[in-house]
Amino acid sequence: MHDFIALLRQRYHAVLNSNPKNYQPIIEQLTLVEAFFRKGKFAKNLPLQIAIIGPTQAGKSSLTNVFLQMQSAGVSPLAGYTVHPQGFYHGLKLSDYKNVAAYFSPFVQIENTDLRRERLDCYTLMQLENSSFFLPPAIFWDTPDFDSIDSTDYREGVLKTIALADVIILAVSKEKYADQTVWDTLKLIEPLRQPTLICVNKLSEGSEEIILGSFKEKWRDYRKDAFPDVLPLLYQAQTKTPEIPIEKQQILFELAKKVQREKHARREQKFVQTHWQDWIKPLRAEHETYAAWQVLVDKIIADALKNYQRDYLNHPHHYETFKQAIAELLLLLEVPGIAKTMIAVRNPFKKLRRLFGKKSSGLAKNSNEINVLNSLLNHTLTELAHELLDKNTHSMWREISEQLRQNRANFLTDFNHAAQNYHEHFQQDVQLAAQGLYQKLEEQPLVLNALRATRITADAVIVALTLYTGGIGLHDLAIAPAMLMLTNFLTESAIGSYMKKVETDLKTRQLEAVKTQIFAPFSKRLHDLPNQLKTETHFAISPSQLADIETQFTEKPHGLRLL
């Protein structure tokens, strides 16, 4: 799951600039939970982590110095003064914090004096020389604000630090406690279930009860867990430094006892469960668009095949393939005065194939079938383009339309080549049909002799030979009077029913050949068009990837369901 969340966060970052929707809240959720998963890998070897968070001008750095009992954190009246996580290890040995670097990677640890606002992928760690009365052994983190105009730039460091924390201190002032960013942040981190201390800073006499009451009401609106400990801090006009009341000075020790790292995995699951549907909603939309495209392509291809049957296979004037089989049959007949070259060899058919077979590939040039197929392709591409114009439910439709337009010329060229290759290879089926008819005629000697004796047959043989020498095309063959009369003669003869069966079988094989050799490869290319879209504009996470991760994490140990 950790790897998938990292991938999902990367994809959200990639599409953020190209998508009009504001994905920043989801990116923050993914950044936080990705870091929380990462913490789980090191949790057993990490010391207690305490982080103070809050909006601008809430007094975080001043409060940090109070808890540390020294002037360690930089204090400034300027909003956004702190832009890097700054850690202070208190009461710890060097070995206690070595895993912090592994957790923060690819962020790097640098010296406090080397911090620069233009470099945000870093943090500092400093050892406290004194021992603070308010702190248990821990690393105490002062963090940047989460609400200034520039906070988006350094938000990742804030979220990483929050995810690392075992205890959260939220510092707010009486002016800032009701800000929406405060409550958005509290809502965001709720599934982590970190023991929390609310420090309401800069309170004036008499305002404490009103502000804390209002804070408690908003907590019930945004959070479902119990209201946390509160540390009200009155404004100190002389020192301008908050003072922790005596009864609250050990509060962080108490909160440290509430840390439950053994429940870390369950809280990972809870966080994912809380946000999962929102995270994958745009993925689902892409998948629905992808699936709708597949359905559209299947429908268009199915329509094209039906039109091929209507406009060619079942068309009384355009269908010419069976006429070609009759022409092949004529070349097998030993007709006096015509087939002298055939009489000298045992298998006259093969002899004629050597004489005329090289010409058969040229039959496709003037074929009705090739013309019908190319016309159907143009119609199919035009129909798809029109369908896409009417679809504006997702940006992918527009991108698929552009891909279709860019690939149109290649589609036309490749389709035509596939049709030519199919036509040439299908001549074998035509020849097999002719041989079947010839064998059936041999079983009917009266019909065979009648054919050889008629002038119509001699004329038809001449037409057939002319076809193979390039003198006429398949369409001319189909309408030649001699061929029409010969076909009628055979139809009305004893093999008439067999001829109908041969023609039907030929059409069946022809339809299957066109489907598998021409339309299937073309359909696959159309199906794959969405895979050619720019990854900067869509998530590019396949339905199978999503299904795999959901299957893996649907059932968790101890009966806990993730999804």
Write the layout of secondary structure elements.
Blueprint: H1 2-16, H2 24-42, E1 49-53, H3 60-68, E2 86-90, H4 99-104, E3 108-109, E4 122-127, E5 138-142, H5 151-164, E6 167-173, H6 180-189, E7 196-203, H7 208-222, E8 229-234, H8 251-257, H9 264-313, H10 321-332, H11 340-343, H12 348-356, H13 368-389, H14 395-425, H15 427-442, H16 445-453, H17 455-468, H18 474-479, H19 481-491, H20 496-527, H21 543-552
Parallel strand pairs: 1-5, 1-6, 2-4, 3-4, 6-7, 7-8
Antiparallel strand pairs: 2-5
Describe this structure in words.
With 563 residues, this protein is α/β, with parallel strands linked by helices. An eight-stranded mixed β-sheet has the order 3-4-2-5-1-6-7-8, sandwiched between helices. The chain is rod-shaped, with a radius of gyration of 40 Å. About 6% of the residues have low confidence.
Name its key features.
Rossmann fold; 563 residues; 8% strand; rod-shaped; 8-stranded mixed beta sheet; 21 helices; 2 domains; alpha/beta; 8 strands
